[in-house]
Amino acid sequence: MFQLLLDLMQSPDWNVARASRRVRDTVTRFHDPLVTYRLNGRSLKLPLSHGLPWTRRTLPLYADNLRRLAAFVRERHGSLRMIDVGANVGDSYAQAGSLPGDAFLLVEGSERFFPLLERNTRDDPAVTRVLTLLSDRCEDLLAELVEDQGNASLRTGGVRAARLSVETLDRLLEAHPGFRSSNLLKVDVEGHDRRVLLGARGLLAGAAPVLLFEHQPRQLTLAGEDDRAVFRDLAALGYRRFLFYDYRGHLHGECSADEEQRLDGLMESARQQDFYYYDVCCFPERDAAAIDAFLAREHAHDAGTGGGGGGGGPRHIVLFSPIPFDDLHQRPQKLAESFCERGAHVLYVEPAGGRAAARRGVAFLLGSVLSALVLHLRALPEVLAGRRVAARTAVRAGAGATTGNAAGLEVIRCPLAIPVHKTASPLLNALTVAVHRRFLERSVLGRFPADAPVAALVEQPFWGAVLEPGDFRAVFYDCLDDTASFAGRGPATRLHAWEERLLGFCAGAFATARGLEERLRALRPALAVVRAPNGVDVDWFQRQAERTHTTLPASGSGRPVVGYVGVIGRWLDYDVIDAAVGGCPEMDFVFVGPAGEPAALERLQRRPNFRWIPRRPYEDVPGLVRRLDVCLIPFAQGAIARTTNPVKLFEYFALGKPVVTTPLVELEEYRAGRLVYWAPGAAAFVAAIREAAAESDDALRAKRVQVARENTWQARAAGMLSAIEAAVNAAQGAHVVV
User: Are 505 and 601 in a shared domain?
Assistant: First the structure.
């Protein structure tokens, strides 16, 4: 129920969002439960009363400057070493993102928020967390730590004041010397930022990290402090140029320490407004080129030309995914995360499903059903009248369009509807299309201004029935599978028709397999189709495999373990699998994943050396693969085998594992040199498993890892973004000419 309340506060319908917030405010007077909030692809536990979700709902650019700054610093130095003072529940850490080679020192003084910070970051060994209060000197204070809507501020004196110990950041770094070379220091401690910076003189004079801190002129003035003192202090330490962002996240302008009149004007403007503050970014004077480069990138970002973050790619990508973001981590999620790492904002549009909604609780399921019912009733008259829902231009011309949320990764769920492969009724299918068109207009397109350079990456043919030419600056089709192969004859006909309609206004297409590439070229010969197979994040996969201590339910110690990780669906060859399990009684077989074919799985479980592990979080997959001696790709022959590029191949290769596969067109190139063991038929499959289990060639394993490194998600994303960016820029030019 409480999670549903938070979800409703994020509704694109302002009436629903505001009403939900009022209910939240009433509820939290008596009870403040923990809820889950997704930020930049990471799930954060926080109190329902926390102000972050509502702030980001009303101020979509809030704190996005940190994400872009972190990406810039990482690009310039090769890795990010960030100190976050006032880390709260880990939201700044989530915004910055964690990549291999990064390191984070997260400092939080609240005993309420620190356990949540630990909980939200405990899966990352690159994070060091410290519970302490920082100031400009080491001393004991008579003070109170006041918490309000997710913020904690230190107030001296008062009836509830107690003795609190504070220390300087320089003193703290004596216990954590690895962070003396930090390249980014972010401070947000509710009016005490200057004191924290003064307590870091040694760090600023030595490593000279880039700074991002919050500055509240009105609050400082009311407290009798000089709101310009921090700029004089920093100038004396070699920081003389400052970028000012307003509290909404917009770049306000640049000012140097020598421009006293302009600085006075900035302070005076903020003093006149309640709750107004600046985010101030400054680079050391010794690296003047860096601030020029970052400022140019920020101006490009504000102009909407895609110059933010890691560079390369449009500012906004709407990714229409066939699977929920929190489901099995596959290509859609990995591409979305990799796009974000390169500075793009991704709106991940996930399908609704009764099972997925039910997993989030009965209250959420009921709310989803009621919301879907309203959408269906509103769309029904237009469907009965044979009209298509109004085109985008009628909606986008109004004044209600908001600036797109440029905060990395954002997930939005489609309304519940009858799946098109479940019914042959033209009326019901038309209603499903109409409901999704309404959703697209109001919840997706309405997030962006009409002239925003937004691109779409479509991974589900169904959207070909929903989208219209002109909805996006450029549309690309990412063909993952021959989707119709998974559907019946009727649904397959509809899916192929929608796919052809989609290709008619696409700027380009990607295909995971050669068979898919050839089919798309045949459908639209003039279309630019690029083969873009699946990939793997090798560094993360290896690091996670070492860190995850997973045990498998083997029936005997010391026996070889043969396994498969993935959906146990109808595309597997269960006769070959059964023959292998029965033909290798001296080995243990472990299959990990959701059961799509319960009857076939039940037959395998009758074998004494077969074990099944249900769905596991993706974070556990590397540890599971590490425990396998031989990895399997036992796909049945047919259309799927001819057009599938299995993600699991590169995940197996990331750990150098020997792989036994039935014949798949996409894997034939890896037959040479026994990178994979090719096994056509049951007898060959058994023999290949035994040969793979006896493998002892370290050079062969190293070669597999090298192949995985040549097929990373980061590389895939870079190539795809280049193609998308070129199409967006070409359309942008045409848009300007018109």
Answer: no
